[in-house]
């Protein structure tokens, strides 16, 4: 009985810690990095979501994806709700693939992060620029989204060990 | 039944079981629910889904607090830069210099704020029927190249979609999304913001457009010019008020260069905006203007 009680407290603490960690990463992406004068997005929420989802069961990963996706929706100009859907599906897929096909490792997390960052850059590009001036599409891709993809890829390995530690899995 | 067929049969059953399993049903329900959210957001007046509104309600005070911390950190960074610069010269004077510098920064900030309030007061005196809400920029959207930002005033403060956002006598942009206690503002660089303008000296009517390439260089594009138009470099561009979406005579920026594009046989001007939205901290929202 006492053991069960301790387990419940541990789970509750992990959830609180996970929420705080998510909000912290959100604030770095939304407030602190732009305040440094960065003229491009650094999608920290993507590798973080992927790393967390890989270490969660499929359904919790799905709900976690919705939560981070809504955060992403708030700070993006794309149609509201689109990232909640994409993040939810990404988290579900990552969690499911980690359980059944891939190993749960830092390299796989990196691989997933690069793929989903690419997908989200593509969606952001399509939703922001497809209706606008398409003649400068290559300049936007080269000058805005490519650096964003590179920087996000470079910082993504940080998130896997941190996320695993927060969820309580020893890596 | 042969052994191979038997195995195949069971693997199909397992696959089917897996696909129709509980978690896939949850995924399907959630996907439909989120698609409904996207649809709701696209048809509602505020362009936001109820889920985003709820999360934003919790996050916007945190964003505001974090912005305050980021500003303080930025100031600290300035102290460090100055200290290292002057340390080589006279160590004793460094602190004093930093003190003066920080006072000067504070003074400049207050001066700018005062100027904005003074201009705002003039507008208010000229148009007593205008209603304003003073707002602070709480975050900047790094997801696009247009300088979109979020302010700490929302539906609860009377802000609604399409409200013009100004700073002093200058038009900054337009409210695009409204949450309960925050709102997203599109700047003039956004292609969704269309403003009819005129050149103050010649009274020549033109159209303000956004061009992605020019946006990355910090310029707006002024079209509708003819070769014979007498607009010159240095000319001031202001809103004409045509269409009733924006109040007239709000400053947009100055003409930096006039370009004759021989390939397309058109003339356009590059406009340097009066306000750099990256440096904005306080703005005014003209509530009720479009009602």
Provide the descriptors you would attach to this structure in a database record:
heterodimer, A: 171 residues, mainly alpha, 7 helices, 78% helix, B: 291 residues, alpha+beta, 6-stranded antiparallel beta barrel, 5 helices, globular
Structure summary:
The complex is a heterodimer of chains A (171) and B (291). Chain A has 171 residues and is mostly helical.
Low-confidence stretches of chain A: none
Rg of chain B, rounded, reads 26 Å
* Secondary structure: number of strands of chain B: 12
Major sheet: arrangement of strands of chain B: 1-2-5-4-3-12
Give the end-to-end Cα distance of chain A, rounded to a whole number of Å. Answer: 29 Å
The major β-sheet of chain A equals: none
Summed up, the helix count of chain B is 5
Mean pLDDT of chain B: 78
Number of strands of chain A: 0
Assembly type: heterodimer
Determine the mean pLDDT of chain A.
Answer: 84
Would you tell me the structural class of the helices and strands of chain A? mainly alpha
- Helical content of chain B stands at 40-55%
Distance, first to last CA of chain B: 75 Å
Q: What does the overall shape of chain B look like? A: globular
Q: Can you write the helix and strand succession of chain A as a string?
A: HHHHHHH
The percentage of residues in β strands of chain B lies in: 25-35%
Shape of chain A: elongated
Largest beta-sheet details of chain B:
6 strands, antiparallel, barrel
Structural class of chain B: alpha+beta
Order of helices and strands of chain B: HHHHEEEEEEEHEEEEE
């Amino acid at each position: 009985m006492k053991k069960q009680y301790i387990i419940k407290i541990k789970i509750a603490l992990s959830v609180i810690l996970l929420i705080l960690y998510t909000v912290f990463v959100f604030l770095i992406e939304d407030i602190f990095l732009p305040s440094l004068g960065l003229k491009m997005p650094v999608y920290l929420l993507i590798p973080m979501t992927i790393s967390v989802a890989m270490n969660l069961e499929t359904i919790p990963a799905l709900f976690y994806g919705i939560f981070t996706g809504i955060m992403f929706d708030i700070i993006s100009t794309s149609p509201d709700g689109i990232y909640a859907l994409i993040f939810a599906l990404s988290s579900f897929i990552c969690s499911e693939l980690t359980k059944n096909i891939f190993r749960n490792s830092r390299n796989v997390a990196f691989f997933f992060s690069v793929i989903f960052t690419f997908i989200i850059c593509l969606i952001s590009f399509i939703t922001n620029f497809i209706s606008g001036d398409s003649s400068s599409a290559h300049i936007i891709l080269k000058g805005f989204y490519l650096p964003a993809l590179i920087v996000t890829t470079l910082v993504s390995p940080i998130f896997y060990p941190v996320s695993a530690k927060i969820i309580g899995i020893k890596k | 039944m042969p052994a191979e067929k038997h195995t195949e049969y069971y693997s199909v059953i397992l696959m089917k079981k897996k696909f129709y399993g509980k978690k896939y049903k949850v995924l399907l329900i959630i996907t439909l629910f989120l698609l409904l959210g996207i649809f709701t957001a696209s048809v509602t007046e505020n362009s936001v889904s109820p889920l985003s509104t709820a999360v934003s309600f919790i996050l916007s005070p945190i964003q505001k607090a974090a912005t305050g911390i980021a500003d303080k950190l930025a100031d600290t960074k300035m102290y460090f830069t100055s200290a290292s610069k002057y340390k080589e010269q006279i160590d004793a004077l460094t602190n004093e210099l930093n003190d003066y510098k920080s006072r000067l920064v504070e003074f400049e900030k207050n001066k700018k704020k005062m100027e904005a309030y003074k201009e705002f007061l003039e507008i208010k005196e000229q148009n007593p029927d205008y209603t304003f809400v003073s707002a602070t920029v709480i975050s900047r959207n790094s997801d696009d190249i247009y300088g979109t930002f979020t302010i700490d005033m929302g539906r609860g403060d009377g802000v609604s979609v399409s409200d013009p956002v100004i700073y002093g006598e200058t038009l900054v942009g337009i409210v695009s999304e409204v949450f309960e206690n925050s709102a997203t503002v599109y700047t003039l660089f956004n292609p969704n913001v269309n403003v009819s303008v005129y050149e103050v000296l010649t009274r020549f009517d033109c159209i303000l457009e956004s061009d992605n390439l020019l946006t990355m260089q910090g310029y707006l594009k002024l079209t509708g010019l003819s070769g014979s138009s007498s607009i010159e470099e240095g000319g001031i561009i202001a809103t004409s008020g045509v269409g009733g979406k924006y109040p007239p005579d709000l400053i947009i920026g100055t003409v930096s260069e006039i370009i004759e594009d021989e390939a397309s046989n058109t003339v356009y001007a590059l406009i340097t905006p009066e306000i750099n939205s990256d440096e904005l901290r306080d703005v005014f929202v003209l509530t009720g203007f479009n009602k």
